[in-house]
């Protein structure tokens, strides 16, 4: 039962919070709407001030919502606009804290996974994939995630997946080759094998051939063979990023080295990639392991001691074990050894 005056206080608190969040959303929205390359420095500065003035959780949620609404549309987003949005996330990720990029990345990956399964007709999947690709381009996420996504797409291998593989390779293929040439080689071999087995099923043979040619061009580091490949815009924005990131350590140590599986099961197993993230949920290890650990080896204990333990209300195995160890040890060293065991 909640007394009326307490209930009233809670309601006014909720209203206040809602009002604050609404105001925050308006401010962030205003900044994102004005986002462009020339004013990126001032906007990222204002965003950092907002992060200092508000709670991180509220800011992360607000920013992620607004960016998702802006970038994940049913029509293809202009590549330049997409890059600028992701660059803002990247600058905040390096200057404010890695939970900014981590929160955004998790939302994007989960949405991408959901849309991939639902057979959406629009260009949402491409837009989400572009977001992930640019998060990799601007050093928010490690190549591990990109390879995971590519492997997943290659394993499904329908027309839609082939489009997405081509799209991703065009955006980040050469960076992947630089980061992990061996993994890329394995992926290309797997794709060739898959193309041979799926040859009968797919109507659009030219598309598959084009994909394999693109992959071979990547392997041979031949940029001319990939139509529409232009590294210039990304390089230009990377230079801008270097000038806007405060800390000298803007590179590898802030990259989130997280796999696709970890991101999709974050609610079940916690977010280990964010330092200090609190987590309340089911235990990480399967229950079977914990049950075997509960049976502590305290040797044979006399019934007299067990009776004493019961009288002292030692009601769990572990409490009883500790009590018995303390009561039956010869000296402090013996007790210490047994407790460690």
Automatic annotation (TrEMBL):
The keyword Transferase does not apply. One of its GO terms (biological process) is ribosomal small subunit biogenesis. Residues 181-208 form a coiled coil. Plays a role in targeting PPP1CA to the nucleolus. Its main location: nucleus. SMART domains: MIF4G. Residues 25-222 form the MIF4G domain. GO terms for cellular component: nucleolus. PANTHER family: CELL CYCLE CONTROL PROTEIN CWF22-RELATED, NUCLEOLAR MIF4G DOMAIN-CONTAINING PROTEIN 1. This is Nucleolar MIF4G domain-containing protein 1. The keyword Glycosyltransferase does not apply. It comes from the Eukaryota. May interact with EIF4A1, EIF4A2 and EIF4A3. Interacts with PPP1CA and PPP1CC. GO terms for molecular function: RNA binding. Belongs to the CWC22 family. It is found in: Nucleus, Nucleolus. Keywords: Coiled coil, Nucleus.
